[in-house]
Specification:
Elements lengths: L1 H23 L19 E4 L8 H15 L5 E4 L11 H19 L24 E5 L21 E7 L3 E7 L2 E2 L4 E9 L10 E8 L2 E7 L7 E6 L5 E11 L2 E13 L2 H5 L11 E3 L2 H5 L4 E4 L1 E4 L2 E11 L4 E5 L4 E5 L9 E2 L4 E6 L8 H27 L5 H24 E2 L2 E5 L4 E4 L8 E2 L4 E6 L3 E8 L10 E8 L5 E3 L6 E5 L10 E8 L9 E8 L4 E6 L4 E3 L2 E9 L2 E12 L3 E6 L6 E5 L1 H10 L11
Parallel strand pairs: 1-2, 6-12
Antiparallel strand pairs: 3-4, 4-5, 5-7, 7-10, 8-9, 8-11, 11-12, 13-35, 14-37, 15-32, 16-26, 16-31, 17-25, 18-20, 18-24, 19-23, 20-22, 21-22, 23-25, 26-30, 27-28, 27-31, 29-30, 32-36, 33-34, 34-35, 35-36
Helix pairs in contact: 1-2, 6-7
Length: 625
């Protein structure tokens, strides 16, 4: 009991001494971020004088002892005067809490913007950075200031910082002056939509810098160029800060938060900040303005499930359900009614194509048979009508009536059939469906016999891919669940799902001519495919492995070696050799040369190669927007 009393008294004395020391140094105890609710809890304040070191362990012991004896909740707080340093073990956690607090304040206070005139849209979307923020120091940064100034060069002794950040919607690349509370800092921000890598236009953007609750902001509604906005902000306080951009578009409101921003007490301190610099070895500059004008895109590399594939070649054929073959119904000579009956010609259902005429034949003349059938029919009609009149007077027997009726019906069937398919000129060939003429087998004046296939009409909407695989894959064929189809002429690749396709069947035995196992796939036809041509087929079967892989469009081949362009920052790219593994037609496994979470050029890599080959751009030369 005496020990506990002694410990309680010692703790109280330490607390009173710390509080008196706080009053003598005129130090503000705590600055509260707006929107934070404070409980009425007793708080220990730990302060430092000039030259003293912060002993976190001792303060923590004092706090623990006070909690055991007084049963109160205490919070340890550190305040520092100018020139003091204190290493916080939980700096990252505090930054995250500051972001959440600032986010809360932004939501509550966003209904009114500058001067209270702006009303927040209802469909606000808050974006979180899926990638680590990259901040680089550049003493020879590009002179983006030339967009608004007449100066065309840059000062090498001027320090700039390049900030790269990503949200779910945007890429941000900003070049900024060092932040300090002594003067305004200029931020030249490039905003890019990630879905199509186009510049952000017609947006209202508010830039804020938050240093321990002290917020400065600048709002811009006019862009310098498409995708480029300039902000001028003077931080109110030195220390660790959070830079944020709140973007309002017609589609909604988006926010990007960038922690790890340093606000310096003066410009001299900014010059000596030990920030990393960009590695410019084997790099090529490709500005945002250039990438916005072409088909360009980047992708973050990751380890993803990568199914095993069987690569083969397939022959494309028209789908049987969408094709009609027209054959000759009689012997005769082909008489083209039009000089424009050619393969590929579009025809309509019922359209007359040509005639099979037998009028010039000595035997089996279709014209003679037509005339004969017509005469027999007319004779049977007349005879049947006469018999029916006599039957009323009971002059003819029932047998004669039945014979006359039977003859009439037989001749009518023969004549109707010939009349529907023939005329005095011969058999009329018409299209049974809408489609295109395919495989025209006859020419004008050619003699054909009954049953001979004349041509095919195809709808050209569905195709059948006929492929063969080796016998060693026989046990794997039931596991095939999808495929990628590549046009070998333009290198366009489609998934089976994109073409609304499915696997029709695979053989249980081999072909007799090549001893391979057949497999058939049905797909929608596109302008990329031509019936009768060949495609590359990547049959995919399930695998449990995950590999580092990249899109095939990111790979460049030079004399058998493969390269990709790795992003240093959104205007600088490093050419790097990689070693590839298997491919499924769309993506390729990377065995060596890349690491997960690096960002590479996934579309337009050849354009950077051309820029490197021409030598028109230098990473250090600067450029003018």
């Amino acid at each position: 009991m005496n020990y506990r009393i002694y410990l309680m008294v010692a703790t109280m004395l330490i607390f009173v001494a710390c509080k008196n020391n706080s009053s003598q140094n005129n130090t503000t105890e705590h600055e509260h971020v707006a929107g934070v609710t404070h409980d009425h809890e007793q708080t220990n304040v730990h302060q430092h004088k000039e030259g003293e070191e912060c002993n976190h362990d001792q303060a923590e012991k004092h706090t623990h002892a006070a909690e055991e004896n007084h049963k109160h909740d205490h919070k340890s707080e550190h305040q520092h005067q100018k020139g003091e340093e204190c290493n916080h073990e939980h700096a990252e956690e505090q930054a995250h809490q500051a972001i959440e607090s600032h986010h809360h304040n932004h939501i509550n206070g966003h209904q009114h913007g500058e001067n209270g005139e702006h009303q927040k849209p209802q469909n606000q979307i808050i974006e979180r950075n899926p990638e680590k923020v990259l901040i680089l120091k550049s003493e020879a940064a590009h002179d983006h200031a030339a967009e608004t100034a007449n100066s065309g060069g840059h000062a090498h002794d001027e320090v700039k910082y390049q900030i790269t950040a990503y949200s779910n919607e945007f890429e941000l690349f900003a070049e900024t002056d060092p932040f300090s509370n002594e003067g305004s800092s200029s931020i030249l921000a490039h905003f890019t939509w990630l879905d199509d890598f186009s510049p952000l236009q017609n947006a209202r953007i508010k830039a804020e810098i938050n240093t321990n609750g002290q917020i400065s902001q600048d709002i811009q509604t006019q862009m310098l160029r498409p995708g480029i906005y300039r902000f001028n902000i003077q931080a109110k306080k030195a220390g660790d800060a959070i830079l944020s951009f709140h973007i309002e578009t017609k589609n909604g409101v988006y926010s990007m938060y960038i922690p790890e921003i340093k606000v310096f007490a003066d410009a001299h301190a900014a010059m000596h900040w030990d920030a990393p610099e960009a590695n410019t070895t084997n790099t090529t500059s490709f500005t945002k303005e250039q990438s916005w004008k072409v088909a360009f895109g980047t992708e973050r590399v990751g380890i993803q499930p990568f199914g095993k594939t069987i690569k083969t070649t397939a022959l494309t054929k028209p789908c049987v359900a969408g094709e009609a073959i027209i054959s000759s119904k009689s012997n005769g000579i082909v008489d083209l009614q039009s000089n424009h009956i050619t393969e590929g010609m579009q025809v309509k259902k019922g359209q007359k194509l040509f005639v099979i005429s037998g009028s010039d034949l000595a035997n089996d003349n279709s014209s003679v048979r037509y005339v004969e059938a017509k005469n027999n029919y007319e004779k049977a009609v007349s005879n049947f009508e006469r018999i029916m009149e006599l039957e009323k007077d009971k002059i003819v027997t029932s047998k004669e009536v039945l014979e006359a009726k039977n003859e009439f019906e037989n001749t009518k069937v023969i004549f109707d059939n010939l009349q529907a398919n023939f005329s005095l000129q011969g058999q009329s060939i018409t299209s049974p469906i809408d489609g295109y003429i395919n495989n025209l087998r006859v020419s004008n004046g050619e003699y054909v016999e009954a049953g001979y296939p004349l041509l095919a009409i195809t709808k050209n909407q569905r195709l059948i891919l006929n492929a063969d695989v080796q016998q060693k894959y026989a046990a794997i064929l039931p596991q095939i669940y999808t495929a990628n189809i590549k046009n070998i002429y333009n290198n366009n690749t489609y998934s089976l799902e994109e073409l609304n396709g499915h696997i029709l069947s695979y053989g249980k035995t081999t072909n007799s001519n090549n001893y391979l196992i057949p497999i058939s796939i049905e797909i929608d036809n596109t302008d990329d495919f031509v019936a009768g041509g060949f495609v590359e087929l990547y049959l995919k079967y399930q695998g449990n492995e995950s590999y580092l892989n990249v899109p095939n469009s990111a790979l460049l081949e030079e004399q058998g070696n493969f390269f990709v362009y790795v992003q240093v920052h959104p205007e600088l790219f490093e050419k790097r050799e990689v070693f590839i593994g298997a491919s499924d037609g769309e993506r390729t496994e990377i065995l060596k040369g890349l690491s997960a979470h690096e960002r590479i050029v996934s579309k337009g890599a050849i354009l950077i190669k051309l820029a490197q080959a021409t030598g028109g751009l230098d990473a250090h030369s600067g450029h003018v927007h």
